[in-house]
Amino acid sequence: MKWKIVENYEELSAEAARLVAMQVKKKPDSVLGLATGSTPVGMYKELARMYRVENLDFSRITTFNLDEYVGLSVDHPQSYHVFMQEHFFRHVNLLPEHTHIPSGDASDLATECTRYEQAIKAAGGIDVQILGIGGNGHIGFNEPGSAADSRTRVVQLAQRTIEDNARFFSSIEEVPTAAVSMGIQTILEARKIVLLASGESKAEAVHRMLEGEPTAEVPASLLQQHPDVVVIMDRSAASRLSAECKETEHARL
Ligand SMILES: O=P(O)(O)OC[C@H]1O[C@](O)(CO)[C@@H](O)[C@@H]1O
């Protein structure tokens, strides 16, 4: 894995957007894997600026989101469908039929998961997958204990994730307890992975991801087996890395 430590959230967002923009220019019909959560919001804002000001063209880009809450309709204010519209899709020239997010309110969720996997394959697989990281080391909604060979499926959310995400709902009781999520294997099949981590609350997970043994207990550590992962983190997220790890950052990128 390669990593880069930047000063703050603004720099993290700019660096992430720069990597995505490079991909979009290099391959205008790229397939991007997208993430929700607060971390990538700044990256989406910067990409929207690049579209407006620099004519970065998304018209041939296809996107697949990592996950969606079970039970929320596509127009629920806390659904990831609405999140993506608000933070990214409506600000750029992505075609609606090119954007994909699993349906968390499908009547048959198992069929929905299979359909989603097939859609990713039919699109030719994911070129660049953007990831955040949970405070417990989850990626997508693959909570600790998720199998390395897991694919898109219904997952139960860990108590910590429910607590972490309660800030987006009016009460913790409203946070869904399950989600449809791409699996670890689905994520590992992306040709390139860019993981973003910001803030002290991610420091322990980042340390275990980069410096711990790969283990299903820290799903992000399973990324160590992927040949092309870039981690972009700010100083607070990097605060628990060993001195050696911090010093080698540039050599490793
Ligand atoms: O960026 P945040 O809001 O800290 O969320 C981190 C992670 O949590 C999730 O939003 C799910 O809880 C992931 O999709 C994301 O990667």
Automatic annotation (TrEMBL):
<comment type="pathway">
    <text>Amino-sugar metabolism; N-acetylneuraminate degradation; D-fructose 6-phosphate from N-acetylneuraminate: step 5/5.</text>
</comment>
<dbReference type="GO" id="GO:0016853">
    <property type="term" value="F:isomerase activity"/>
</dbReference>
<dbReference type="Pfam" id="PF01182">
    <property type="entry name" value="Glucosamine_iso"/>
</dbReference>
<feature type="domain" description="Glucosamine/galactosamine-6-phosphate isomerase">
    <location>
        <begin position="11"/>
        <end position="227"/>
    </location>
</feature>
<keyword id="KW-0378">Hydrolase</keyword>
<keyword id="KW-0413">Isomerase</keyword>
<dbReference type="GO" id="GO:0006043">
    <property type="term" value="P:glucosamine catabolic process"/>
</dbReference>
<dbReference type="InterPro" id="IPR018321">
    <property type="entry name" value="Glucosamine6P_isomerase_CS"/>
</dbReference>
<dbReference type="GO" id="GO:0006046">
    <property type="term" value="P:N-acetylglucosamine catabolic process"/>
</dbReference>
<protein>
    <recommendedName>
        <fullName>Glucosamine-6-phosphate deaminase</fullName>
        <ecNumber>3.5.99.6</ecNumber>
    </recommendedName>
</protein>
<dbReference type="GO" id="GO:0005737">
    <property type="term" value="C:cytoplasm"/>
</dbReference>
<dbReference type="GO" id="GO:0005975">
    <property type="term" value="P:carbohydrate metabolic process"/>
</dbReference>
<comment type="similarity">
    <text>Belongs to the glucosamine/galactosamine-6-phosphate isomerase family. NagB subfamily.</text>
</comment>
<dbReference type="InterPro" id="IPR037171">
    <property type="entry name" value="NagB/RpiA_transferase-like"/>
</dbReference>
<dbReference type="GO" id="GO:0042802">
    <property type="term" value="F:identical protein binding"/>
</dbReference>
<dbReference type="GO" id="GO:0004342">
    <property type="term" value="F:glucosamine-6-phosphate deaminase activity"/>
</dbReference>
<dbReference type="GO" id="GO:0019262">
    <property type="term" value="P:N-acetylneuraminate catabolic process"/>
</dbReference>
<feature type="active site" description="Proton acceptor; for ring-opening step">
    <location>
        <position position="138"/>
    </location>
</feature>
<comment type="function">
    <text>Catalyzes the reversible isomerization-deamination of glucosamine 6-phosphate (GlcN6P) to form fructose 6-phosphate (Fru6P) and ammonium ion.</text>
</comment>
<feature type="active site" description="For ring-opening step">
    <location>
        <position position="136"/>
    </location>
</feature>
<keyword id="KW-0119">Carbohydrate metabolism</keyword>
<dbReference type="InterPro" id="IPR006148">
    <property type="entry name" value="Glc/Gal-6P_isomerase"/>
</dbReference>
<dbReference type="InterPro" id="IPR004547">
    <property type="entry name" value="Glucosamine6P_isomerase"/>
</dbReference>
<feature type="active site" description="Proton acceptor; for enolization step">
    <location>
        <position position="67"/>
    </location>
</feature>
<feature type="active site" description="For ring-opening step">
    <location>
        <position position="143"/>
    </location>
</feature>
